[in-house]
C-alpha cells in the first residue's frame, strides 16, 4: 500500500471513519499478528492480543499527532500489549496424567473402570517387553511429562535424536500391543 494512501486512511480514521480504520486493520493485521506471535508463541493468544491492539489503536488514534508515524505507533502498541500479556500470563505447571483423569465429568460404571484398567495393564505389559531405552523414553515423555529439552539433557542426546527415539519407541509399542491381541 503506498504511503499517501496510508496517510489518507489514517487521517480519515482519526475523524471517525470506521471504513478507513477497517482498511488499516486489513492492511496491518498480519504485521501486528506476527509481532505479537513472536513474543507470545501461542496462536490463539496472539489472535486475541491482535484484536486488543486494534481496539486500543482505534480508541487512541485521535491522539496520534503525526499520521505518518502510524505504522511505528501501531507496532509499539503491539509490542507493549504482547509484553503485558506475557508478563501477566499465569505460570504453567506440569501435571501428571492422573490429575486430568480425575477431572472427568462423565459418569463411569464398573465395566468402564475394568476396561480402562485392562487397557492400562496391556500398555504396561507392552512397555515391559520393549528394550530398556525405548521403555525409558516413553515413560519419561508420557508418564513423567518431561519435555523434549529435559529428555535431551537427561539422555545426553540432541532433541532430534529424542524425537526419533520417541517415534521409534511408539511404533515398537504399537507392534507389541498388536501382537498381544488374540487372533
Task: Describe the protein's architecture and organization.
- Helices cover 75% and strands 0% of the residues.
- The chain is mostly helical and 183 residues long.
- The protein folds into 2 domains: 86 residues, RNA polymerase sigma factor, region 2, helix turn helix motif (Rna Polymerase Sigma Factor, Chain: A); 81 residues, Arc Repressor Mutant, subunit A, CATH 1.10.10.
- The radius of gyration is 26 Å and the shape is elongated.
- The relative contact order is 0.07.
- Helix 2 packs across helix 4, helix 3 packs across helix 4 and helix 8 crosses helix 9.
CATH class of the largest domain: Mainly Alpha
CATH superfamily of the largest domain: RNA polymerase sigma factor, region 2, helix turn helix motif
Our count of domains comes out at: 2
What is the CA-based Rg, rounded? 26 Å
* Helix-strand sequence: HHHHHHHHH
Distance between the termini: 66 Å
Give the overall average pLDDT.
85
Helix percentage range? over 70%
As an assembly, this protein is single chain
Shape: elongated
Largest sheet: none
- Report the total helices: 9
Number of strands: 0
Note poorly predicted spans.
none
Global structural class: mainly alpha
Strand fraction = under 5%
CATH third-level topology of the largest domain:
Rna Polymerase Sigma Factor, Chain: A
Q: Please state the second-level CATH architecture of the largest domain.
A: Orthogonal Bundle
